[in-house]
Amino acid sequence: MNPVPLDIGFFYKLPDPPNFEVVDSSLYCIPSTATKSVSDTDDAENVPFESKAEFFKFIDESVIGVHKPFHGAFGDRKVVYCDYIASGRSLFFLENFIYNEVLPHYGNTHTTTSITSLQTTLFRHEAKDIVRNAVRASDYDAVFFVGSGCTGAVHKLIHNLHMTKPPIVIVGPFEHHSNMLPWRHMAAKITRLKTDITGNVSLDHLKQVLEEESKLAQEQDCDLIVCLAAASNVTGILLDVNVFSALVHRHGGLIFWDYATAAPYVDIDMNPVITGPDRDYVYKDAIYFSMHKFVGGVQTPGVLVAKRVLFKAGETHPDGCGGGSVCFVRREAQVYLQDVEEREEGGTPAIVESIRAGLVMQLKQAVTSEAITAREEVMVKRAWSRLKGVENLLILGGDRAPRLPIFSIVVRHAYPLVNGSGATPSNEAPQLSPEAAAPTQPGKSCLFLHHAFVAALLNDLFGVQCRAGCACAGPYAMDLLGIDEALAKLYEGALVKSGVGTCRISRFFDASAREVLRPGFTRFSIPFFMSDEEADFVFDAVRFVATYGWAFLPLYTYEATTGEWHHRNYDAGEDRQWLGHIQYSKQGMVWRRGKAKSRGPLPKSYKECLMTANAELKKAIEFVKSAPVSPVPDDTASFDEDSQKLRWFLLPCEAAAQMRGEVGQLAVPTGPRSPWHPDAAPLRASDVDKEGEKATVKTLDPGNGQPTYKSNASPSESPMLKLPAESTKVYSGGLSVDDGFSSLNPQTLTQMSQVDSSTCLRTKTVSTLSAVNEPVPEQRNNHCVLARQDFHVAADSHNFMEPEEEKQVEMLDDDELQEVISNLNGLYMPPKPSKTQSLIRSLKLDHSLWKRPIKQLYKPFLTAIKKI
């Protein structure tokens, strides 16, 4: 099946729409983003957008749920969605078109005799043709709507390859699990490419591998397949697809491109037309991408476009055989259709989803790939401008390769000295002492903020929606984080041992649960239609968390079995909506919404939101420093010996101890050293200021050694400097309060002061680590060089311990819980929490684990097992 230069044939062209000027017709439009009706409009009113910026604004304002307020741990916030690389969001005008034009005519496909089926079939065929033309597919290419994303597309492609021998497969370093794992199970040999000095895929390494593997493929008479991602979903780094395609084809290989990350933002061309010696080799054998990653693409299928010659296996056994895929079926045999697109889409397809996919692709074509690419380049430059100079912030992938505005970050932490000399005025930003501002050389003594904590804090403080983990690109994540194969095996052993993937109920202090140890990063992206103001707010939020985020750790707790982090005094489940609450009556469909209490007013602007975060920082520090004893339980010794060696993140009790100057009083006073370190350095501040940008950079005042914020914005425009002079209120725990108000619970604080530190869990062996200030040689690329930070404190504080009079919730009783646990596969856990003082937790958090949903979910299970 080795490829040869192809005559790419004729491109499929959409049929011309009828000329409505010569027939009786009306022009319709959707007049607003908040209506589900259409109205007549006049041709004279159908004026195009004056600029792409106006088009972008229209898209931004049409996102369903854009800036939706929610009740958060620090008060009300607006949603700022920065997770489009995971999934897009719905658009009013597309959903309104489906509501008004598609659904009223809906009928099943596979027939054209009824008006509903005819119109639905035509809609779906046209949607596929829109996609076909958008990717410049020729008559030699087949287009499929597959499953819900790339995973289904890859499996359909593999099934149809009809390979008599296992192929030799080469995969790129960026590959998503969906473009890597399926090949592992079918390849005779699989080779993973390296990256070059810029962080991009090494073309030289690919040449070397192709020369070796093409000879081996000829000897074994098997196919050579190369699978590459057009863009990394972790770093956004872009590949020159034509160069790589030509190189693979010159060595007789097949090239399959994963466009899942790149498709919404770049031009896709199955059969590029270029000049030069590579003109016959730059075609693509197959591409696949997920339409749900496009803006407006919620509930859309995946797309597979591939050369028809690859679908030999389906002639005898289609991957999707079923109704609609056959020409004739008799009692003992069947004859499948010859057309590969019809043959491989057996059964009722995702009809409305496919039509929506066509609408989404049509929107991208209307905006144009050129406009999107230009806007994305501006956003990347803007990010470099505003994020440089933050010593604690590591942006994985660097800034040397062309990329999309996708940023995966790691926030590191050295042992800062907390200045106890007094509080700063409530309207000023916390200042770093000269000692703390001086760069240290922590080397491998640094830890990191847990990626899930960073994501939670961005959500709680700023409403920024991002994602924490490895982005389903495990090997690439390990490359970026500096985790070699030996260390990866240790993490694998720890996570598998902890019961990952098993069904079980586990409590917070399950000593064998180590999911929280899983390394990762925090990823956010900036969509092309986001305004400059909103993008700058996101960058400022990231700067704030990277610089001051560690000080919020004492307010948070983590779940060892899931790796999730939550504010100690906030239960996100209070706002949860339930399908089970839906009822039907004469009023129609009726449901209930929970009435969660607001913890503070909604900031009126992005600048005010940043100021609020600044005030919350001061209260968080004051809460920890003003307590007679540390209000955070010491759980440094709750990790067993193996876990202690693998722990890479700062604990809440360690952050509190550092702020109080009590590190030596911890059960494990010196803390661990992170076993891994990203091979990355903070972005330099020397070239931050770009023309036309309002970059904010931390610099040191030569007069007093204090850091200042250099900005092209005026002082009144800089949200990081101070609260408005007329403001007389600050925010405590999200509540708007007077300056003299304190939400600290004295009774709880007194109880906490009686905690005996000797009751802390301890392991038999605790490795002795170097002292905090021990000098360590500078590491390669200065990837752990950061400025130690020092905070003055403010006058207000947080209360994250609840009174004992908690509202009673419906829970499984002990007998029911015992019965559930005993019939599940997994480690038995006692129904009641341990009384160990070192692991004391908020009653509210404790109850939140066992609220009504547990009883609702497990009652059927209890009934079933009683009958056994």
From TrEMBL:
Domain Aminotransferase class V: 104-412
SUPFAM superfamilies, per database record: PLP-dependent transferases (SSF53383)
Polar residues compositional bias, start-end: 705-717
Region spans: Disordered: 671-720
Biased composition (Basic and acidic residues): 686-696
Xref: InterPro entries: Aminotrans_V_dom, PyrdxlP-dep_Trfase, PyrdxlP-dep_Trfase_major, PyrdxlP-dep_Trfase_small
Domain of life: Eukaryota
UniProt-listed PANTHER family: AMINOTRAN_5 DOMAIN-CONTAINING PROTEIN, SULFURTRANSFERASE-RELATED
Protein name as catalogued: tRNA 2-thiocytidine biosynthesis protein TtcA
Protein's organism: Schistocephalus solidus
